[in-house]
Each structure stands twice: as C-alpha cells, then as structure tokens.
Amino acid sequence: MKSASVRGMTLAVAAWLASTAVVVTGQAPARDPRVPPMENAPTFTRDVAPILYKNCVSCHRPGEIGPMSFLSYKDVRPWAKSIREKVVAGVMPPWFADPHYGKFRNDRRLSQKEIDTIVQWVNAGARQGNPADLPQVPSFAEGWQIGTPDVVLELPVEYQVPTEGTIEYQYFEVPTNFKEDKWIQAAEVRVGDREHVHHSIVSVIEPEKSTRPTVMEVKAIIPEGEAAASRQPRTLTEEQRAQFAQAARRAGANMLLNYAVGEDAPRYPQGMAKRIPAGSTLVFQMHYTTNGAPGGDRTKIGLIFAKEPPAREIRTGMIPNAQFAIPPGAPAYQIEAEATFTDNVKIHTMHPHMHLRGKDMTFTATYPDGRSEILLRVPRFDFGWQSDYWLAEPISLPKGSKLHVTAHFDNSTGNPNNPDPKATVRWGDQTWEEMMIGFFTYTVESGSTTSIAARQ
C-alpha cells in the first residue's frame, strides 16, 4: 500500500498535469528550439559524416586507437548519444590547450556550428539521410597515417611482455644501413601491442660525434633549500653501472620521434626535415607496462624521405628538471626549468610531458628586450593523451631569448590518479614516479642545411 506522502505527491502531480492540460488546450505544444523540424533536421550523410571524416576518423577507424569506427552510419548510429555528450562537454576530440594563448594548426576542437549540427542530428533522431549525399570516405594507407613509407625498420625480435611486475625501460638498437644521409619528411611509430606499450622514443645514434652547434643552455630552477632534498644517494650494482655506461652512449643520440597515445605522426612542412646521417643506428626506447595478461610487441617505424635536402633541419629539444622532491599531499607543487638560446631559432611545436601527478604546464617566451608572452598553456594535463601542439605560425626567438617551462603537480588525495598521496615523489621512469619535461621542436635560422652538413 502506498504511503500517505506518496499518494499526496501522486495527486499533486496529477493535478498539475490536469491544470497544464487545461491551459494549453487548443494550442500547439511548444517546440524545443534544439530539435529542428524533421524535414530540416541534419542527417548523417549530408551533415554529420563530413564533420567526423575531417576531425575523427584518423583515430576512429579499424586498426587505430579509437575504440569504435566512425566510417559508416551503421558504425556511428549506436554511439550517437555518447558522441553528442562528448562533443558538448569538449572531451572529444581531445584538445587541452588554453584557447587564450597561441593558435595551432593541429587544433582538434570542433567549431560551435559543428557541435550544434551534431546535437541537432541526435536530438532529431539521428537519421541516416540520402545515401547519395555521403561524401567520399577518406582513404588511408593500410596500417599507416603518413601514407606508404619509403622504408620500415622494426625491433630485431618480438619482446615478450610478462603478466605482472615492473618492467624497466627496454632498449633495442636497429642499424639503418643507410649508405647516404637521409632527410625525413614524415615518420610514424607503429607499436605491435597497444595494450602494453605506454610509449616509445626513437632516437638516432650517429656513427660519428655530431658537430651540430649547440644553440641553447638549459637549467633546472631549484628553489632555495630543496637541492639537497631532491637528490637521493644511490649505491650502484655492477649491472647498473653497465646500464649507465650504455645510457651515456645513448644520451648523445638525437631524438627522431616519440609515440604515445594522442601523438600525431608528424609531417614536416615543406623546406624542413629531420636528418639521419649515413651509417646511423636507431635506438628504440620502449616503456612496457603489465596488465595481468601476457603480450608480445615488435614496434616499427616508417619513414618517408624528402625529395631534396631542405632549407632547414628541424630538431627536437627538451627542457627538463629532474631535481625535485614533491612533498606528500601537495596539491599544486611548482617545478620550473628554462632554456636560453645562443642563436636565432624558430619554435614550431611544444609538448608537455609529466606522469600521473601532472596538473598543468605553461611555456613562456622572454625576449632580449624583456618582453614576454605565453606560447602554450595546458591547464588540464591528461597523462592518457600526449599531444604535440603545432603552432599555426612558428615563433621567432632571437639570440638571447629564453623559453621558460612552469609545471604544477598534484600529489594530494584530491587527485584520483595519484598512486600514493603519502609518498615523496622524485624523478623516475615509472608512472608512479614523476618527470617534468618540456619538449619542443625548433629550427636554427643562421645557416642552411647544406652548410651544416658540410661541417660534419
């Protein structure tokens, strides 16, 4: 039997409905302006497919990182309401740059018109529309975003990932066997086991020590009194000494390409390319994580060569600070580092890198005249989606300029991803440790690649 309060509520609702019915008798019900008349409603083939093809299917297609395909109406229709929710919330497509600073050529955000079109399409029933209106489905080289590579190099063996435990970074060296210098116009890393590969960094060990001029001085900014606390004394085993010796050899390698979820496979603008000298060896740094199931990985890299030597060699730089000790419970611990340039450079991309406690990162340029500007601010860093931010127009930094990187870390209980809020956190490879690196790509504006290559 219903309680008196429930019966009273039911009667009240019924009375309200009755009174409302009387008021609107003889009137057409008010139409929700977000739901267009059916005859004017957007359709998938005419209105929505072009948006998805332009912004989404590079990831949402078979064999890519998107968990579902968006190539056809049959693929998309079951996800219509979820797509509406994600685009309205700004969660998809993923993009984390503060819109108040900088313009980026790979900005993934949808326009308000595109968002409204998707919302109206879903609200009106997510109709298919006339199949004849469907635009041509984008074509992709099978297995590659950059197109068919000129050469593919892969790990010499398949790495067997165990079911559990911590896996130290693995390094695999792959000789290129290039008989002449190669200029790389586009490159892409394809991992063999996405479930276990967190990231891969491919670098170039050149056969002779590079004579490229060093054009920047990088320093970590350590708050007074923290320098000693950030360093931990370590007793090294013979095996560790050997590992560090090998690491020292690799430390001089030039970074070629990174892979992590969210990173684009780069295609460098006309007139710019990365250089792999003849006889170089590629070293793959592989970060594997266990998840309770075994796996096997044989990561590879595809390279597309430039047709001729470019006017500028594009390089990857890094501004790190490894001397920190994040206190337990700290909600916004600040870590800084900066680079001072000793030559004229242009900045083309920036890439924040932190781990699970990473909160935000800002890149600020300071010019020789004292003027400063924020080039990139990422107010909500997402460890699960690593991104390169390509400036729509490169920023010129004259000799004497600085590029300053400021990051904040949340080691509190308020961070749902925090592995251990009670721990003092220091630099380390594993995800429960931390890193602070501001990656960026740049070109040196004094001298051509021809003159640089001639000096080597």
Question: Could you tell me the strand content as a percent range?
Answer: 25-35%
User: Would you give the CATH topology of the largest domain?
Assistant: Jelly Rolls
Low-confidence stretches: 1-29, 450-456
CATH architecture title of the largest domain: Sandwich
Number of helices: 7
* General shape: globular
Main sheet attributes: strand count, strand direction, barrel closure: 8 strands, mixed
The number of domains: 3
In whole angstroms, the N-to-C terminal distance is 91 Å
Percent helix: 10-25%
Strand order of the largest sheet: 1-11-4-8-12-19-14-17
Radius of gyration: 27 Å
How many distinct beta strands? 19
Mean pLDDT: 85
SSE arrangement, N to C: HHHHHEEEEEEHEEEEEEEEEEEEEH
Structural class: alpha+beta
What is the highest CATH level, the class of the largest domain? Mainly Beta
